[in-house]
Every structure is written in structure tokens, then in C-alpha cells.
Amino acid sequence: MILASDRNESATIDPREAAHFGTMAADWWNPKGSSAPLHQLNPPRLRYIRDRVDTHWHGDGTGFTPLAGRTALDVGCGAGLLCEPLARLGASVTGIDAAPENIAAAEIHAAQSGLAIDYRAGGVEGLDGQFDLVTSLEVIEHVSDPAGFVRGLARVLADNGLLILSTPNRTPLSRLAMITIAEGTGRIPRGTHDWNKFLTPEELTALLRDAGLHVVHTQGLGFSPATGFALSDSTSLDYFLTAVKA
């Protein structure tokens, strides 16, 4: 493995963020615990990923393993909530996370689930190799250097690969929903988000462009008390971006 110091790249891990999420490791797989919103996010996340995978690699949407024969990397994987479904979709999966506690929890759960997933503690700048699918969902708003983080993602993306990101938009709605309501009522742990670090779609698109990537699809992620999280035409709360090498 090549370390950040060998690449002359800046480290993107924020130690305070890593410590915050590390404290949630033991509860990560509890659908009613502190990570409950992540469990609720997974179905629309997977719908989006499956749609983009089928579009990019010309799948018909009916097979159970559309990622068979492909490699996938989830950056900021937590305890593996996305890695495990990607493995079941057929991919050879690597998951990396800044918090060693999360990696330990991920390894235990994968073993209990009978899944072979390569988990590693660290940041993207310390990773070698290239991957067909690179995902990083609700992560970039927690790193210390978003531009360096995106460059790291671009570096490990294969030439015909697909990069999928999601992140909150920096809008009055996201401040109200994610800070005032979600954190204020304890739905998610206080201090999870810094609204000032949220990126607009235009800002994230510019970072991707500067890293040699081209955005091919954007879709919003919305929430309602009646239906929960769902894909949306509006990006005012949260959104997905899909990019390929330019």
C-alpha cells in the first residue's frame, strides 16, 4: 500500500470527524440506534446506484448480480452498510474508513454475514489500485480538504469506471432539516454535521471537473414524514452526483 507521504498528496481525514463516527461503531448495525437514518437511506441509495450501474454498463435491470466481475470501493464505509449490498450485487468490494472502530465492526458483521469484503482503516490518499465503481456517500462534507479528497477518488477510478457521490446541499432547508431538527431533537447525534462544510451541486461539480472528471447525472434525495427518504427531482436537501473520467 502506498502512503499519503509517498504520493505528495495532502491527508483529507479530519481526526475530530473520525473520532466522532468511531464512537458510533458498536451501534452502526442497529436500525433503531444512532445510525437509524443511514439504514433508512440505504434503499434509495441502492436504487440510485443500481440505476446508474445498469445505465453505464448496459444492464437490463433484471439480474441479481449486475456487478459480477467488477471491483467496487466504498470510501467512508462506516461499518459496511453499503459494502455488504454491493458484495451481494456481485462486486469484489473494498471498504475504507477513517475510524478503525468502524472497520472492526464492519469486519465482524461481514464475517457473520458470510461475505468476503476487504476492509481497511485509513483515507483514500493511502490507497493503491483502481476500481470499476467508486462510491462515497455522505462523506465529503466531513473531510478536511474536499478538493484533495476528490482528486484521491479520481485517482483510484478505473478508466471506464463510475464514481457516485452523495452529500447534503448547503441550503436553508438542509440547515433546518439536518441541524435544527435532526440534531436538535437527537434523531442523529449532535455535532454530526457542520452546515458550512456542505457543498452545492455546482461547487461539487467544479471540484470533479478540476480532478479530470465529468458529471453525467444528478438527482436529488428528499425526505417526508410520510414516506421517509426517496429519490427526488429537487436537490435542495441532499443529492447524488455520478461522474466518469473526462
Give a brief outline of the structure.
It contains 8 helices and 8 strands, in the order H-H-H-E-H-E-H-E-E-H-E-H-H-E-E-E. It has 246 residues and is an alpha/beta fold. Pathway: Cofactor biosynthesis; ubiquinone biosynthesis.
List the helices and strands and how they pair.
Blueprint: H1 4-7, H2 15-22, H3 36-56, E1 71-75, H4 83-88, E2 92-97, H5 100-113, E3 118-121, E4 131-137, H6 146-155, E5 157-168, H7 172-183, H8 201-210, E6 213-224, E7 228-232, E8 238-245
Parallel strand pairs: 1-2, 1-4, 2-3, 4-5
Antiparallel strand pairs: 5-8, 6-7, 6-8
Can you put this structure into words, describing what you see?
This protein has 246 residues and is of the alpha/beta class. It has a single domain, classed as Vaccinia Virus protein VP39 (Rossmann fold). 35% of the residues lie in helices and 24% in strands. The protein is built from eight helices and eight strands. It has helices at 4-7, 15-22, 36-56, 83-88, 100-113, 146-155, 172-183, 201-210, and strands at 71-75, 92-97, 118-121, 131-137, 157-168, 213-224, 228-232, 238-245. An eight-stranded mixed β-sheet has the order 3-2-1-4-5-8-6-7. The radius of gyration is 17 Å and the shape is globular. The relative contact order is 0.15. Residues 1-10 have low confidence and may be disordered. It is an enzyme of class 2 (transferase). It comes from Sphingomonas aerolata. O-methyltransferase that catalyzes the 2 O-methylation steps in the ubiquinone biosynthetic pathway. Pathway: Cofactor biosynthesis; ubiquinone biosynthesis. InterPro entries: SAM-dependent_MTases_sf, UbiG_MeTrfase.
